[in-house]
Automatic annotation (TrEMBL):
Keywords: Cell wall biogenesis/degradation, Dipeptidase, Hydrolase, Metal-binding, Metalloprotease, Protease, Zinc. The record marks 322 as: Transition state stabilizer. The active site is at 434 (proton donor/acceptor). Gene3D superfamilies: 3.30.1380.10, Carbon-nitrogen hydrolase. Binds 1 zinc ion per subunit. Catalyzes hydrolysis of the D-alanyl-D-alanine dipeptide. It holds the Pfam family Peptidase_M15. This is D-alanyl-D-alanine dipeptidase. It comes from Streptomyces catenulae. Its cofactor is Zn(2+). It is an enzyme of class 3 (hydrolase).
Length: 462
């Protein structure tokens, strides 16, 4: 997954112009294969405390019409955005706003919001501090949010790492390059990817202009990308890209196995009989046609998704249920291949690497009947180009099998977004190392959606 920090010189309290600039940057980022864009502190209004003092009632809500260009750009291009602005807490219509980040998903809907916990100097007179730390999941990655002065408090990054976050996103307005030295330290001390979107252009009073230099740091503290100084930032802005594919939560992660299962008892149904209009496999890998079976709740959601596809497109189920014994065989065969290719790897490293492509049998969504391997086809059943063949391994495809992989053709990227938008809206989640793998009701689904427990456990076909 590529993520980006966007740096541009905001116009002072010109929300319309700044929202338009953000929308353009989101479109540019999407063309590069970016899945998430982070904007600087108060980028929507510019960091201007004097103006806020003169207009203390300025505040926005997630559905504010002035944010429509941003929401529409997210929806049109399938990219998420972290937009920092003044906002009141939900349900509060008067009083002092906070410095808040709205996280809009790739469908334009609000994923979460986070209000700056630690206020600096005059901010304390003009804004209300937040009360909870910021977290969200996107594309199999667990993100943490922080805003400017928050980053002077090491415990925020420590808590993020303890909570299982892999990437730490900072929206800031620093005027001095010396202020940026804390970011590699947060990365190195906590094993986190860190992405900073810093302000550029005019600041507030004596604080001076934003110094720019938005950047990205690896978990070992190395800086891998940087924008230019704020004074040199072009009006159209700059994007700083970071690849966080190694931050994806894999099936072998202990957090997945820790999800409890409360088996709901839904039956496995034969898709060919229950939904003959859905393109489905024949006998497949086993003589009993197991691959054409799914839990009934999964099938209902696939039919809902297919009805929502654009005209001329259909879903084809390549494989559904997989008997536990077959799942174990696939996993062990692939793990054995990796052991031979990488004899220096530990057993745990092999298990983790294998789970990018084949789930460990004890938690496998396919063995629970909750997973569907899917492709898009035209109305006559001709497969749409999805960027790789179905079931291409990470080694074979050089990572292009990852759903948000950079560098795939634009048409394939659009096809993946179309597939993802319809299936996500129907309630399924994607395993980010495989663009074709979607599931509902299994342990990975529960982890990604925040459900208390999985609905489906491993099951034998009656």
């Amino acid at each position: 997954m590529l993520i980006a920090a966007a740096q541009f010189p905001s116009r002072r309290h010109d929300i319309a112009a700044n929202a338009t600039r953000m929308a353009a940057l989101l479109a540019r980022a999407a063309d590069l294969g970016v899945a998430l864009v982070v904007f600087a502190e108060l980028a929507l209004t510019q960091y201007d405390l004097d103006a806020f003092a003169a207009d203390p009632d300025l505040a926005l809500t997630p559905d504010d019409a002035r944010l429509a260009p941003v929401r529409e750009a997210c929806r049109a291009h399938g990219v998420a955005a972290v937009v920092n602005l003044p906002a009141r807490e939900p349900g509060v219509t008067t009083g002092i706003p906070g410095i808040t980040s709205f996280v809009f998903g790739p469908d334009g809907a609000l994923l979460t919001r986070y209000t700056k916990l630690h206020l600096s100097g005059r901010e304390g007179d003009l804004f209300t501090p937040g009360r909870a730390e910021g977290r969200f999941r996107l594309g199999g990655v667990h993100f943490a949010l922080a805003t400017c002065y928050d980053n002077s408090f090491p415990e925020l990054a420590e808590h993020a790492a303890a909570d299982g976050c892999r990437v730490y996103l900072a929206s800031s307005f620093h005027c001095s390059p010396e202020s940026l030295t804390k970011y590699p330290q947060r990365a190195r001390d906590n094993g986190l990817h860190v992405l900073l979107a810093n302000g550029a252009g005019t600041g507030s009073g004596a604080s001076g202009p934003g110094c720019g230099l938005s950047g990205a740091w690896l978990p070992d503290g190395r800086r891998v990308a940087s924008a230019g100084p704020g004074a040199d930032c072009p009006d159209e802005g700059e994007l700083v890209l970071a690849d966080v594919r190694d931050a994806v939560v894999l099936m072998a992660d202990p957090a997945v196995a820790a999800v409890p299962v409360r088996e709901c008892g839904e039956p496995l149904v034969d898709v060919r009989e229950a939904a003959p209009g859905l393109l489905a496999p024949g006998a497949g890998q086993t003589a009993d046609g197991a691959a054409a079976h799914l839990r009934s709740g999964v099938l209902e959601r696939l039919l809902t998704a297919e009805r929502a596809l654009p005209d001329g497109l259909r879903l084809r189920l390549a494989e559904g249920y997989r008997p536990p014994a077959l799942q174990r065989r696939y996993f062990e065969e692939y793990a054995d291949t990796l052991r031979k290719e990488h004899p220096d790897r530990s057993a745990e490293q092999v298990r983790s690497a294998a789970s990018r492509y084949v789930s460990p049998p004890e938690i496998a969504p396919h063995a629970a009947g909750g997973a569907a391997d899917l492709i898009l086809t035209t109305a006559d059943g001709t497969p749409v180009d999805m960027g790789t063949r179905l079931n291409a391994s990470p080694e074979e495809s050089d990572g292009a099998c990852y759903t948000a992989a950079p560098g795939i053709p634009a048409a394939a990227r659009r096809a993946r977004r179309t597939l993802g938008a319809t299936l996500t809206a129907a309630g399924l989640v994607n395993y980010p190392t495989e663009w074709w793998h979607w599931s509902y009701g299994d342990r990975y689904w529960a982890l990604e959606t925040g459900a208390d427990a999985a609905l489906y456990g491993p099951k034998e076909l009656a």
